[in-house]
Design a protein that fits this description.
By secondary structure, the chain is α/β, with parallel strands linked by helices. The protein is 57% helix and 8% strand. Among the domains are: 85 residues, Orthogonal Bundle (Arc Repressor Mutant, subunit A); 135 residues, Rossmann fold; 117 residues, no CATH class; 110 residues.
Length: 726
């Protein structure tokens, strides 16, 4: 007779193909820890049913390398043909297949949980009326409970799951919810897109989001939760007052019978009841239980149990290592952890929480207990070790972890190090860096150096309120710089023009040229695609360029000349003056060392204008654009040309324009700068015109991007267009 526990194991293993039985690298989900997590039981509870299944030839056991679980081989299990046949011929819903509930995003892989039926129905009833915030102490089973809700909600809704950490912002949430889709980032755009979509959006660990980002996250979820056909579920350690319009539900301890089920069949019922009661019916405390542990006499202190029983089984060195990884701000690849050699052991002790097969961190209950027991000096020393560990990791994530731990152990060193990277923000996760700087300010107070760093990061991320809040801490020179930046990103042209002399006085001649070219470009591009250059814009661009003194530029002189020529060429094309445009190209060719891609770029733009004037055919211009873009080694330039042709085609042949549009690179592919922002704005504007079903959402996103690119005139025009359509 096959027991229910054995059938649940078989059903879980049945999710994985026979080909896995011969693989060297296998998923952690078929190892003992993975099976236990999925089934919600103590690992020791699997020993007896696994032995019986193996003896009955329903499963096989072997040693294999578990992906992300350390370098040593581990025991894994596979269902046999006999096991699959038995399942097919057995009636009963003993487990929910992982494939039966479609949750988009990085949800925990849990098939079902014990008990909670009453709580689940209560929350489902609440969700009929409003969105939901689930709170409860670490390890009480909030995430698993949310998964069980989703298993019901998925029958009529699309479920999207995001896990938050200290570095999470709105962009990170949207990427988790929509991993394979192109999604706008403007809050109103997202809300318009999702309205009436029968969507349930989950944010797990929402309480971990930093103070730096929680305001925008609150704005996003409250807007989404107010829309018809959208519900949000937030999972938090605390009952959060930051979110309005949410029903609050506190998850309490698990019922005794379900706790006993978690402990399995090898322990007699009376002992299981005593263990569960002594551990306060706390699911994670029960999962941490090992048969060799002494059971506490009462449930008065779960923290004491973790500290004096669970962690007391570790060696001195293991305790040091587990204390170190407790200070990581987010999950890390197991192979890159400072405790990589011990991850497998810690996993066997159920101390690790996994995200997929590779990323891991300490269970939150364990992590919090360790953190609370560290004094300031001990904490600082461990952060220093972690900073040294991550310093040599050249990945973007490695840099984030390095800067985080440096900020917690050496503030002066952190300021120096981040200042060295501040001009390369397009290669850094600025959500992480912004949170780190803000946390540093909260811990140490705000000084001029930190205020300037936070302001520059905010300028890059287009967060004017953050800049404004820091102005009072800045010394005179930096104050002028950030007031100028603030006026520029908010589109207050007259104001930043008045400050321009003061800003230029602080810069080298090369830096002056760069800024003036930036302003000239922003002025020139502040028009809808295909619109002519106005006389006022031309006058302003000309004035900016006249202020560039080429005779005083020692370095990068040629690049400045080329940049100025590109602007003048754009003006000529904007005025349909092909003669002047050709003269500019000839002048560039005479320089001799100008990149061929630049000349090809300009000639291709001219060809598109000739097509608009009826001088060449559609087949000619299409062939020329395809051929020339293949020769341009700068993808942003090539894609901008293709985008321009698509814009032109829209009025002549919408079907052909749609075909061309589908081949364009998506906006998020390029690092954030003014050029890529304008490309993204045009992309979304074209999207709104081609895909009319999402017209309002896409138009709103185009408006946001034009504004962030400094195109205030276009933004105002689109704002008016948006409100007319509303």
């Amino acid at each position: 007779m096959v027991s229910k526990a054995q059938l649940r194991i078989l059903a879980w293993l049945n999710n994985y193909p026979d080909s896995l039985t011969k693989s060297w690298d296998v998923t952690r989900e078929v190892s003992l820890p993975g099976i236990a997590e999925a089934l919600g039981v103590v690992r020791s509870a699997l020993n007896l049913p696994l032995r019986k299944l193996e003896k009955s030839n329903l499963i096989t056991k072997r040693m294999a390398h578990v992906v992300g679980g350390g370098s040593r081989r581990r025991q894994v299990f596979h269902i046999t043909a006999n096991g699959r046949t038995l399942l097919e011929n057995t009636e009963g819903d003993f487990i929910k297949s992982t494939k039966s509930t479609r949750i988009i995003g990085n949800s925990p892989l849990i098939s079902e949980i014990f008990g909670r039926a009453t709580e689940r129905q209560h929350c489902l009833d609440l969700l009929q009326q409003e969105s939901l915030l689930i709170s409860g102490m670490p390890g009480i089973g909030k995430s698993a409970f949310a998964v069980s809700l989703c298993q019901e909600l998925a029958k009529k809704n699309t479920i999207r799951w995001a896990v938050a950490d200290q570095f999470t912002d709105n962009s990170a949430l949207l990427k988790s919810w929509f991993p394979d889709e192109i999604i706008p980032h403007d809050i109103e755009s997202v809300a318009i897109k999702l309205e009436n979509s029968a969507s349930v959006l989950i944010i797990d660990d929402v309480d971990l989001i930093s103070q730096r980002h929680i305001g925008k996250v609150s704005e996003l979820v409250e807007n989404l939760a107010s829309r018809t056909g959208v519900k949000c579920i937030l999972v938090s350690r605390h009952s959060a007052k930051k979110f309005t319009g949410f029903a609050n539900f506190k998850l309490a301890a698990l019922d005794l019978a379900s706790c006993c089920e978690m402990l399995g069949e090898e322990i007699i019922q009376s002992e299981r009841e005593q263990i569960a009661s002594s551990l306060g019916n706390h699911p994670l405390a029960i999962k941490l239980y090992q048969p060799e542990y002494e059971v506490p006499e009462s449930s008065s202190d779960i923290v004491d149990y973790v500290e004096n029983v669970v962690l007391n089984t570790l060696s001195t060195e293991q305790k040091r290592q587990v204390s170190t990884i407790a200070l990581e701000p987010r999950s890390v690849p197991a192979s890159k952890s400072i405790a990589a050699d011990e991850i497998e052991f810690f996993d066997q002790q159920n101390l690790m929480l996994w995200s997929g097969e590779e990323f891991t961190e300490l269970q939150y209950l364990v992590r919090n207990v360790i953190r609370e027991n560290l004094d300031d000096d001990g904490r600082r020393a461990l952060h220093k070790q972690l900073a040294e560990h991550w310093q040599d990791d050249n990945s973007a994530s490695g840099l984030e972890h390095y800067l985080y731990h440096l900020s917690c152990s050496d503030v002066d060193g952190f300021v120096t190090e981040l200042s060295a990277h501040i001009d390369t923000l397009e290669h850094i996760n600025t959500a992480a860096i912004a949170a780190i700087v803000n946390n540093c300010i909260l811990a140490n107070g705000c000084d001029s150096d930190l205020a300037l760093l936070e302001s520059r990061i905010a300028a890059y991320r287009f967060e004017p309120d953050i800049i404004r809040a820091n102005l009072e801490y800045l010394p005179p020179a930096q104050l002028v710089e950030m007031r100028f930046t603030l006026a520029r990103i908010e589109g207050r042209v007259d104001e930043y023009d008045l400050m321009l002399d003061d800003i230029l006085a602080q810069k080298t001649h090369t830096e002056q040229a760069r800024l003036l070219i930036l302003l000239a470009n922003a002025t020139l591009e502040d028009r809808l695609p295909g619109k002519p250059v106005t006389d006022s814009a031309l006058a302003k661009v000309t004035e900016y360029l006249k202020r560039i003194n080429l005779s005083r530029i020692d370095t990068e002189r040629q690049s400045v000349i080329v940049a100025m020529s590109l602007i003048k060429h754009s003006i000529a094309l904007g005025r349909k003056d092909l003669t002047t445009a050709e003269e500019i190209i000839q002048t560039l060719c005479s320089i001799g060392s100008v990149d061929d891609s630049i000349i090809i770029n300009l000639r291709t733009k001219e060809a598109i204008l000739r097509y608009c004037n009826g001088a060449i055919s559609l087949s000619e211009v299409s062939g020329l654009v395809d051929a020339n873009c293949a020769l341009i080694d700068h993808q942003m330039i090539a894609e901008s040309i293709k985008l321009r042709l698509t814009e032109v085609l829209l009025t002549a042949n919408k079907e052909l324009a749609e075909s061309h549009f589908a081949d364009l690179s998506i906006p998020d592919k390029f690092p954030r700068n003014n050029t890529s922002l304008r490309y993204a704005a045009r992309w979304w504007l074209l999207h709104s015109e081609i895909y009319t079903a999402s017209n309002m959402s896409s138009l709103r996103e185009a408006l946001r991007l034009y504004r962030e690119a400094g195109c205030s005139n276009v933004a105002a025009e689109l704002e008016a267009r948006f409100h007319v359509r509303v």
